[in-house]
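Notes to self after the call with IL:
- keep both proteins in one doc
- input above output, always
- annotate only the second one for now

Protein 1:
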Amino acid sequence: MMEIKTHDFNDTKIAEIISDEMIINSAEDALDLVGNIYYQGFDKVIISEKNFTPDFFDLKNKLAGDVLQKFSNYRIRLAIIGDFEKYESQSLRDFIFESNKGRQINFVGKLSEAL
């Protein structure tokens, strides 16, 4: 079961996805979510790290790139909340660092940072 909680922040509607289940297991799942969010009038979304398949954080399989491309194509800004320090992969750390320099995709530690 997935819930979409709306946050109003600086006259912007932000969707926070709340679920105990993995929501994004594939690029198709991401596209479904993006379409859902987009048609509800959101242009920003917050999702917890636990809602992504662990494969997302293994850059070798290209899933992260495919998923994030869906958000970029619709110009939906995405914040992923989690503890990213636990990942050993230097390429993933570099990817997170580079993403956080921009405004499209951000990896943050808590909801207040995401907002």
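Protein 2 (the one to annotate):
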Amino acid sequence: MANSMPCVALFLLLVGVAAPAVFAVTEGLLPNGNFAQRPDKSGMKGVVVTGRNAIPSWEISGFVEYIEPGHKEEDMILTLPEGASAVRLGNDATIRQLINVTRKTYYSVTFVAARSCAQAEKLNVSVDPEFGVLPIQTVYTSTGWDSYSWAFKARHTTVTLSIHNTGVEEDPACGPLIIAVAIKTLYPPYRTKGNMLRNGDFEQGPYIFPDTPWGVLVPPILEDVHSPLPGWNIMSDTKVVKYVDAPHHKVPRGERAVELVAGRECALLQEVPTVAGWSYRLSFSVGDAANGCVGSLAVEAYAARESLKVRYESLGTGGSKPAVLEFTAIANTTRVVFQSSDHLLKSDATLCGPVLDDVKLVGVRKPAPRRLRL
């Protein structure tokens, strides 16, 4: 059984104020995104929410429970963080909220969730017509709680965000718990003169709750074609990369970085225009996030026909080293790929891996022109 989260500061995060049901997106919690505003008693039967609009700012369907701070269910494998409220999505349960957005703009949704009783729990996150089914079976924290992200492109000025439990269990209440939902506007990054890669410093990415020390999981492209990490795609069946921040982790440069937590089961990649026959230099930093990931951390980089394996001996206290891969392009598009060589575990048996940051790609030289034979 997972322990209750020791970070009492999360309680402060989950304190909210009333807001209209429809609002203009900026950044942060959705209205009642922390479920601090409890349902009216007339829309409740015990902990089961019976009224479709009983939870302020949300609409529900299916078997939904409202769990107040301090309440414990006998069948739950973990308890809520101190001071947090939650909704529990049982059989075929959905919570949804109508939000105002800017048409053709990209957004990322971040929510904190945990499985409560079943092993293979998953959540379908959608903004019509786009959706992604995010498995929450693999737990990346010792508390049992993880932050998940998912991105979408707004097709209208008003959209409905839905989070749906697709499972049906013998116990109708069995399903994932959610304690916070937030949103963030994403701005498509551009290539610069000094870097042919977009968002190579990873400074743009999904919303990170200020008082959650575990980062945000970014899903594979199979579940999210837009990616909450602009410019980059995650290639995997079910595994993810973790987006981490400087306030809670050591990052090689700036405020954000990526931790490769899934070994060879997951790859981070970006395709970039190149000129066949030209030479290029790919530089990047490899380190550890000061999160207790100890051992030989290795990142493998691939571009065209070249590859490089970079090892960083980690004490789990932070630090990084630079690396360079030079290659000659063989096509008009080159795929730049990074992955961790191994599966690594911290002392609490949770997955961890090397941190990747400050990725740059520059052209070095073009081939010498051929001399005409007379």
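Annotation: The CA atoms of residues 47 and 144 lie 22 Å apart. Residues 9-186 form a domain with the Jelly Rolls fold (CATH 2.60.120.260).
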